[in-house]
Fold:
Amino acid sequence: MSLVEPTAIAPAEHDRSRLRVFLSALIADRIASVSLIIFLCIAFVAVFAPWIAPTDPYDLVTLNILDNRLPPGSVGMDGTVYWLGTDGQGRDLLSAIMYGLRVSLLVAFVSGVIGLAIGLSLGLLSGYVGGRTDTVIMRIVDLQLSFPTIFIALLILALFGRGVDKVIIALIIVQWAYYCRAARAAAMVESRKEYIEAAQALKLGPVRIILRHLLPNCLPPVLVVATIQIAASIAIEATLSFLGLGVPPTEPSLGRLISNGFQFTMSGQHWISVFPGLALLITIASINLVGDRVRDLLNPRLQR
Amino acid sequence: MLVYVMNRLFQSVAILMIMTLIVFFGLNVIGNPIDIMVPPDCGFDCRAAAEAAFGLDRPIHEQYFIFLSRMLGGDFGNSFVFGLPALDLILSRMVATLELAFSAMLLAVVIGLPLGLWAGLYPESVSGRSITALSILGFSLPSFWVGIMLIMIFAVELGWLPVTGRGETRTIFGVELSILTLDGWSHIFLPALNLALLKISLTIRLVQSGVRETIGMDYIKFARAKGLSRNRIIFVHVLKNVMIPVVTVLGMELGTMIAFAVVTETIFSWPGMGKLLIDAINLLDRPVIVAYLVIVSMMFILINLTVDIICGFLNPRIRLDGSRS
Structure:
């Protein structure tokens, strides 16, 4: 892949064409583009679940307890077809998975965006200012990263209690250190370049230099970390919910659905935890595959 | 070297102090522990009496030092549920967790090493590519779901292996172990495999990339030119160099395994300390929660310290950098 000669065109146009080159390279890769399409479908289903799901799994009026634990493809008491079967309370599993995806993706997205904002700001500050600020911030990052993520998440939930908000806080705390480290590494390289020196020579304020000049150039490596972190946080949220520490049972995420199905696995009603698990697996795998490809594309060492 | 070790030791103590601070203030500042100890109809006087009895009326920093000094003496208080000292509970369950973690580590090496070696030697073959693809899949699989699938296939459908508990244990040097009996083996296999899954993927990747890098090195070409047999080159010259990063990374991953054992133990009802933690959280058994968090933090810090010191011995560059900073 060859990049367009950067000096030949105006900055804005250059950015857009660079993005276009990047996107066309991404689409040219078959695995990455298929994964991207799958992920977009999943995201679509998650966002529009209330409108496209066959039933509303949390509307108690439509639930029929006699329809509980029906195998996939069964027809319920009122003639509804349950393509993926029903769970212990007679909820349509397909609809429950759609709603579950919504919760899982929402938690991952919200925590990802806040974690990114915190990690990015501290990382840029750390890399640009250096000195004692850098030492203090990086010590905290190192301290946190010396513990396994799942332990940090368990620690927070064990101390503060359960609930969606607590899970989001736990995921933010788990993630920010990764963003911070990536942003700092990029900022340290970038802030030694001429354009930053030029901006400093123009007596621009540090806030303006960081936000307008440093930030856009440090973003790509941080965004790569973000795709991988979002997949990881979906997995962590599912794990925590499975352990009963995550989202409450009234609004189950995929992890909770799997854990609800777990008790029926022993009696051979496997679909209740198999299908939500497959949904989870496909979501995580598609994000990971796209992220893997994005990382290769943005890695200057692999470009000729 | 001594300076480096002392430096790392000092850092470890500092990290441990920070962890106890977080645990203590997290528990006491956010929620008042007295709320769950007194009956709901307890009036102001009764509450004050209870607070005084537990030392909660003192200034917070004083409470922290009391907590710290009791902790150093190994006193985390008694479990609300079991009525036993929390530390004893954790220690009695720790063996089961460590047994699980080490078995998983063994599985990761026994399965991951040959597969990684194969994929590294024949990267373009169908089998090599499938191994690589499997290892990528292994990173995406949510491990708790795989645990359920393992139970479903091997225990429910096929009925080959039991799924709960440790099975028959045998006591050796005062420690109960499952791996000493056949029944214990059948009980530990599935949970250990479940816990090992991610590490198998990791080992495959490490070994594979290591082999691919090493095979092009000059000393391998030299060994081949010297007329050494293929087996000798692979198993002595290549493997020796590949094993260094594998051992280091797996050593550091031991901590992750102990943490992740929480999930595996919950699925397979393995009576380790992770299951104890989840039960304690569900029952709001604070002394046990605190004891688990502090003890496990200590284990992580110890593992990191050991790995760092070993790396310092192996690689003088790290040691010199470390002692200067």
Observations:
- The first strand of chain A starts at residue 74 and ends at 75.
